[in-house]
Amino acid sequence: MDSNIDLSKNLKLKQDLINELKELINLDTKMNEKYLGFKEIQNKWFKIGPVPRSQSVIIWNTFQHHIKNFYDYLHLNRKFKEIDIKYNLDKKKETIEQAKKLIVIEDKVRASKYFDRLNKKWRFEIGPTKKENEIILDKEFKRVGNLITKNKIEFDKNKDSILEENYLKKENLINEIREIVKAELTTTKEWQKNITSFEKIKNQIEKTGPIQYKNKKKFWTNYKNTTREFYKKKNDYFKGLKKIYQKNILIQESIIIKVGELVLKDDFEKYRKEIVSFQSEWKNIKPVPYKINQKNWTNFKTVCDKFFNKINKQKENLANEFKINENKQIDILKEIEKYNETSQVDVNQLINKWKETGKASLNHEIEFDKKIKKIFKDSGLNDQDSTNKLLETKLVSMSENEKSSEIYSLNKKLEILKKELSLLENNISFFNDKSNENKILDKSRKEIEKKKIEIESIIQQKVMLNN
């Protein structure tokens, strides 16, 4: 018992409560209010600590006597009495369950001491129940107590060997903690798993019974040092993790701001790859606390969706514009069809009108060029001159970007033609000037000549574009 407990003071407090209980009878209040006052007195009683041993039974019996008087005075119409009896029944059942758990714990000394506290609670704190229940409950509580006492007696008989065995168990468990401390862990998941294992072992150490006095100092020194080492390593990891969290959170927030700025730009296709790059980068930003990661992901996804929605809207507008332009070009092509060889055609006007239609079908563009070349041919120009004339006419209204684009396109054509020419010239070297091969040879020579003319034409067009 704690030497600092004031037993005399506790006795005085309990005597005061008995006096309060007596006075309840004379109070001019409703029965309900008196009952609430009664329950408050009971609760205060059970919170007060022990009294001098010589007065313990007397004060308890006096308290129970005045409880009975209180019940009798109020007559309690069985209602409140039944509530109290039911409360006491539940408390006694709960106490029996607590006592049963003490049978199986390894520390038999601790179990015995704890049962002594339960026994005092049973005798002095928990009120009466119905007589038929009281007999059954007392019998069960006594049976459990006998088992706990038997375990304590058995422990005392084999005390030395049990204490030694407990010491060895605890030392083995400390070694298990040392193995956990040695583990090199790099992820939070691994740490969470090891923390669970550590807490489980620690709990086993605490549940394992007492050890010999001569081993206590050595054991607790080892135990404290080992657990302290584990906690230090764990704290170091999570402190470092916190810094990584802060760094990654800042990276996420920075990306959200950058994407938000790109949403305000007009040339979406130009920045599309940059957004996709940010999306790939986002996947590799780990670790981040779950809730903050979810919040940032929602914000990031929202700004990305805005960007791609604008791209889709722009594509939709371009598609509509393309369709309008395509219809205008079809009308121009139909208009050209109406012309004949005797018609006076303003080619410059047609080209300007075509250019005003904007971007549309490449096939229509090719068809338009063919028709304009035909007009030039109909006027007496050959194929090469018609091609040059078409380009010359277009040059008047071409921008520098359009010229560069045309040169790029001609260079690609020139590269292909040169490869084809080289292949034909290589193949012709294998022919003999005999029999049936003469026809194939003639055909190849004509094809070579054609390629050379086309190459020359492209070179001339490039000269015109560069001037």
How are the SSEs ordered, and which strands pair?
Elements: H1 7-24, H2 31-47, H3 53-74, H4 79-104, H5 108-125, H6 131-157, H7 159-182, H8 188-207, H9 213-263, H10 268-283, H11 290-337, H12 347-356, H13 362-378, H14 383-395, H15 400-428, H16 437-466
Structure write-up:
There is one protein chain. By secondary structure, the chain is an all-alpha fold. It has four domains: 152 residues, no CATH class; 73 residues, no CATH class; 53 residues, no CATH class; 68 residues. It is 83% helix and 0% strand. It is built from 16 helices and no strands. Helix 10 runs antiparallel to helix 11 and helix 15 runs antiparallel to helix 16. The relative contact order is 0.03. The mean pLDDT is 84.
- The stretches of 5 or more residues where confidence is low (pLDDT under 50) are none
The proportion of residues in beta strands is: under 5%
Average pLDDT figure: 84
The helix/strand class is mainly alpha
Give the terminus-to-terminus CA distance: 111 Å
Q: Name the shape in a single word.
A: elongated
In sequence order, what are the helices and strands, one letter per element? HHHHHHHHHHHHHHHH
Tally of domains = 4
**Number of helices, counting only DSSP H or I runs of 4 residues or more:** 16
Helix content: over 70%
* Largest β sheet strand count, sense and barrel closure: none
The whole-angstrom Rg is 50 Å
By DSSP, the count of extended strands is 0
